[in-house]
Design brief:
Number of strands: 8
Structural class: alpha/beta
Shape: globular
Radius of gyration: 17 Å
Strand content: 15-25%
Largest sheet: 8 strands, parallel
Bound molecules: pyridoxal-5'-phosphate
Number of helices: 9
Order of helices and strands: HEHEHEHEHEHEHEHEH
Helix content: 40-55%
Amino acid sequence: MVNKENYYGILKETEELAVGLIAVSKFKSIEDIQMLYDLGHRDFGENYVQELVEKQKALPKDIRWHFIGNLQRNKVKDIAPFIHLIHGVDSFRLFKEINKQGLRQERSIDCLLQIHIAEEETKFGMDEKELVEFFQFYETGLSDLKNVRIKGLMGMSTFTEDKDQVREEFKRLKTIYKFTKNSYFIGKDYFQEISMGMSGDYKIALEEGSTLIRVGSLIFGNR
Ligand SMILES: *Cc1c(COP(=O)(O)O)cnc(C)c1O
C-alpha cells in the first residue's frame, strides 16, 4: 500500500527545498512500487542486492535505483549495469571494486561515502580518521579511478527519541561534508549531496541541510 497523503505531504516539503526524495521500497512488493511509479515517482531505494536485481528486472527501466545498504564487494557486479547511486561506500576496497565494475560496464558509477555518525556500533560508515585515510588512497589512485565518482556523503542517525542528539549527529555530518568538500572537491560541482533523514527524522535532516532523504515506512507503511 502507498500512503498517498503522506507521500504528497513529504514530496511538497522536499520540492520546496529542492531536496531529493528517495522512496525506500525494501521488502515492499512490485505492485506497491508500480503504484508509486504511476504517481510519477522515479527514485527508489533498496538495501539487498538480490531483491533489487529482481525488482529492477520487473519494473520500468527509467526508475533511478539507489543502493542504500551495506554492499559486499562480490555483489557490486550484479548492480553495476543499472545502479543510479550507491549510498553506502565505507572502504577504499569497495570503492575500487565499484570502479572496476564501472569500467567493465563502460560507465561511471556515482556513489556517496557513508560516515558513521550514530552511537550504535552496528551501523556502518567511516569515522573522520578512516575518511582521511580513504582520501590518501583516493588521491594517489585518482588517475585509475575514472569509472566512479563521489557525489557526497551519507549518514544514519542513532535510533533514539532524543531529537537534540539526532540534530547534533546531522550537524556533525554537515561539518564533515564541508571539510571534505573544501579539502578534496574544490571546484567540483558534482560533490553536492548529503543523504540524511528517514521516516523518523527527515524533518530534522531537512533543517540541517540534507539534500536527499530516504523515506520508507511513512510512504509504504510499516515493514
Ligand atoms: C530502511 C532504510 C531507510 C528507510 O527507513 P524508514 O524508517 O522506513 O523511513 C532509510 N535509509 C536506510 C539506510 C535504510 O536502511
